[in-house]
Amino acid sequence: MAGKDVGNSEEKEQKDIGITVKKSEDFSEWYQQVILKSEFADYSAVSGCIVYRPESYLIWEKIQRIVDARLKKLGIKNCYFPLFIPERLLKKEATHLEGFSPEVAWVTHAGDTELDEKLAIRPTSETIMYDSFARWIRSWRDLPLRTAQWNNVVRWEFKHPVPFLRGREFLWVEGHTVFASKAEAEHEGLEITQIWEDVLKEYLAVAFFTGRKSKKETFAGAEYTISLESVLPNNKAIQGPDFHHDGQIFAKAYDIKFLNKNGENEFAYQNTWAISTRMLGVMFGIHGDDNGVIVPPRVAITHVAIVPILYDDTMDQVLKECRKLQEELSSTMYHGETLGVLIDDSNYKPGWKYHHWELKGVPLRIEFGPKDLEKKQAVLVRRDTGVKITVPLHEVTAKAKEILDEMQEHLYQKSVAIMNTAIITVHDMAAFEKALDERMIVYAPFCNSPACEDQIKAQTGAKTLNSPLEQKNSEMKCVSCGSVTKEYFYFGRSY
Amino acid sequence: MAGKDVGNSEEKEQKDIGITVKKSEDFSEWYQQVILKSEFADYSAVSGCIVYRPESYLIWEKIQRIVDARLKKLGIKNCYFPLFIPERLLKKEATHLEGFSPEVAWVTHAGDTELDEKLAIRPTSETIMYDSFARWIRSWRDLPLRTAQWNNVVRWEFKHPVPFLRGREFLWVEGHTVFASKAEAEHEGLEITQIWEDVLKEYLAVAFFTGRKSKKETFAGAEYTISLESVLPNNKAIQGPDFHHDGQIFAKAYDIKFLNKNGENEFAYQNTWAISTRMLGVMFGIHGDDNGVIVPPRVAITHVAIVPILYDDTMDQVLKECRKLQEELSSTMYHGETLGVLIDDSNYKPGWKYHHWELKGVPLRIEFGPKDLEKKQAVLVRRDTGVKITVPLHEVTAKAKEILDEMQEHLYQKSVAIMNTAIITVHDMAAFEKALDERMIVYAPFCNSPACEDQIKAQTGAKTLNSPLEQKNSEMKCVSCGSVTKEYFYFGRSY
């Protein structure tokens, strides 16, 4: 429940754990340092795979609980399908195979035995699940079938890995649902998108724009994809959680039919959707600063770090008062859970502890020493702004909750500002290219043709992010090919 | 929230879902049928890997919550390490490699690219975790390091797979902890074993005997292994959760050293421990009967199935009363959670519904029809005994909780009886072999020599299960080789 004891090499250690670059000057290097030095993640012996250390994994658990409760309310039931997918199953839906096969890790041997058929490690579970769904679903009475699984997936990317944001193994929940009608299936899209939006806004404090993916960027095997896209402080866009409406595409490939109420056999309508541990990286990348991680209060494990200022003559009284504070705070309800509160009574100097808990991103620090004991007060320091206030002891709990709420809202607003400042609307390719060179996210009319998107990519390096679901629908000319379109798209150089 | 509507083929379906063999006559066949027909699990397209359908997965989630809360109380922190283990890491501890390598699934390719080094799918995570631990641990201040991960592991068994009990992929929590002293590490053994015993007894209602594994059966790389062994109704033993004290064996292989308080470098002391989804199978196998699964109330998702007896003229009133009952019951606290209560208002006949919810193992059924409406009563039917009682409506909630508690205790006592009846003490090989032929678990003095155990295995097909931690310590002769020993061991033909 604390830091580390003082050692001879205290100063050296202090230097080791500090971040040596400014976030504003070199985001990539800053990000790597902040993730590693905060002990949120570590590299592993397997290239491209990280260790999710407790500091980050426990936050993921919290996100799991939040999302899982919302999904269960919708009637979605968790299950678990095998990690392995036989090659023949993966091959059944051609677009899907094409989308994933370059990144599939293949198991070819067990012990010394070569397998008869090589097995894919799931990059996603459509193919193995739908093989079962085809057997389970007979009639409209078996529908809707709404399942999800929390698991690990592997996509053997050959691009440069970045902890949480891009790696060869990640954790997620993948939802796979089957309906008797397209309308019901599409309605689920609204429910799921609403959950994603609430989680990003209310908990992760991450701004986003929701929209439909271009034809080229639509999920392999889906009719359309809805995505939430966020913007990192280096103005790079990154895709967050998504929702895919598959129509009857997979149903036809995997023969998922049901007897409808008219006694006719009909292919079912399907959706898939997911949120992954990538969001940890998005959250850490957006909120952190030159002192370390900043964890939004609603997903923090430790909300308050109490640092006693210890001198021999007042040590016992100061510690006693800190423990009283801890007890009071940790029995306080904060949005349906109790606050996480630690006392750092290690032998390090107060300054070391301040830096340590800042690095770890604890939202609120309380400093308490002999002077505070005397004046019956405590000093509260907010992690994101660094603002210090002195509060009478009996007001600490109320004030702490107030600060946490303010901080949560402030982090979100900052993220909104980062996003809004990054976006610029353009209507011709000269402005498009200039904006990209200035590292902006571009908002431009686009015809949604895959060939035209390829052309833009080749010319500028940018790809579409998504297209807002509601637009004015006036006729415009595509920024690249000039053909008529009614849709704006976001473009960017993305992760 | 209910079964299925009535179809033309109702009778056929009813027959399909019934169990066609008696548990007492053919346990293996009964077990397979009960697991599949209850829709608790299904076979998958990958040989030896099952689908954990929601009916069983949601129970596993409940076990996770129970175990996780206990582990968190001990200060154990969850994390997540890669699925993959490079071959060179797996090779570092020779005994460990030897123990697992015949069952390792190997990834050799990613996309079309052959990997430079083949990667094992984790059969357990010692080797990948300890590689990190060696970097993280510097001094006594970094200890204890107590971590666990909930994940999937793969052991490519070539024996006949049995759903939950033996398969190529299963789910578990694996604990990996590091201490500065042997005493602390061994103390954790008491804490963890206590959790395992409480979970089996209080929640799964599964009887067990705790003991130390023989030298031959000790975990590959451990100094000693403590296991909980249970007995299935076919008198076969099956190993449940375990605890391994590794001493400094892994620390030496993976170079996990710390600077102790005397300023000297010392190898750390380690433990590993686990509980897995195998326990679902043990629980279903022990408690189920010829009508289907029986889920112990403390781990049930649905505790009560209300079946209304519907006639046209009283339908509305009966359903209204059922909904009142549901509301009352589902807002009732039962051991810290609310009761799960469903109303089956589908169009099937009541008899169909009774069978359906019996098959699914719901602990308590409430029947409610026009006569009950008139008399302000309800009929409560307990799943395990089939005992029906009629209770005034205002007493239903209290009585339901009472029945659930009685049932929980009764299931455990039945499991104890199965276990005790299965065990016989012998002191010579003639009695040993006779007992095994009669499908008993044998309790016999044994010298604990691996060579002697090999000899017994060759002669009888039995292996040791474990040896009670506290014994009388009088001198006896080993049942096989006749050398002096002070220990009894359990032996059996096991899963």
Folded structure, characterized:
Two copies of one chain form a homodimer. Chain A folds into three domains: 20-287, 2-Layer Sandwich (BirA Bifunctional Protein, domain 2); 302-405, Anticodon-binding domain (Rossmann fold, 3-Layer(aba) Sandwich); 423-492, C-terminal domain of ProRS (Translation Initiation Factor IF3), CATH 3.30.110. In chain A, 36% of the residues lie in helices and 26% in strands. The first copy, chain A, contains 15 helices and 27 strands. In chain A, helix 3 packs antiparallel against helix 7 (182-204). Chain A is globular. The model of chain A is unreliable at 1-15 (pLDDT under 50). Chains A and B meet through strand 2, helix 3, strand 3, strand 4 and strand 5 of A and strand 2, helix 3, strand 3, strand 4 and strand 5 of B.
